[in-house]
Amino acid sequence: MEGFVQQLALSYVGHGYWFYVTGVIPERKDPRRVDEKLLEQYDAGLSKWARARRKRAGLSNVHYIRHGRFFVLIASRGEQRFFQDEPNHKDVRRDSIRFNGYSIGYHRGVDRRWHPSVRIHPDEYRKLKAYMLNIAPHRSVEKLIGEFRRIRFEPYAPVRRQLLNLLRAVNRLRDSAGFEPVPVSALRLRRRVVRPFEESNSGSRFGTEVGYGHPKVPLGAISRTAETAGAQ
After folding, report:
1. Strands 70-75 and 19-24, how do they pair?
2. Which of 39, 81, 82, 110 places its Cα 20 to 30 Å from the Cα of 22?
3. How does DSSP classify residue 205?
4. In which band, very low, low, confident or very high, does the pLDDT at 232 lie, cut at 50, 70 and 90?
5. How many CB atoms lie within 10 A of CB 125?
6. 122-135 helix and 141-149 helix, angle to the nearest 10 degrees
7. Mean pLDDT computed over 1-5
8. Do residues 62 and 79 touch, judged by C-beta distance below 8 A?
């Protein structure tokens, strides 16, 4: 799952793929058949060289990415049948992609430059905050450290800010009750970089969840951006 988020945000949204649709494959359908259909329909399995030629010609490119039965088709600017076939597509700069408690978008960062943005979705964050504030005055520091360390979200820059705000809210409550604060070391603030997807014969990474019908160890190297950058 973390590989899916990383690939979508850093390798696709961060490289000009802003127009998208999402879907869930019904239980009655074989996901691999759907993969094949969509890859062919939108030329989403092209090599990076073919994509570069299309870009120079003013044509759009499409990526297809899937985790389990949830998939995203995401396109760059230009001419492509995607825009005719998917008239209800969204723009990630205005409508973030919601996936498994994350909100994935493209926004201005604190440096005023545009960046891919990965944060905890507001609905999920409200639930997490309500839970942590409810237990804050009733648990020991050790128990609360354990609770913070069990938070599953990868600490991209916006997630780090959310977690630090949450820690401050917990400590304000504990301070008013006369309890010891929870140290910032309770938070995991360094993101794990993963190698999310294997590479197809064409050189394109596409819609396969790590370990889903494929070798457990992915074969394709991800881009340097995905390896080193942090979404803002």
Report:
1. antiparallel
2. 110
3. B
4. low
5. 19
6. 160
7. 89
8. no
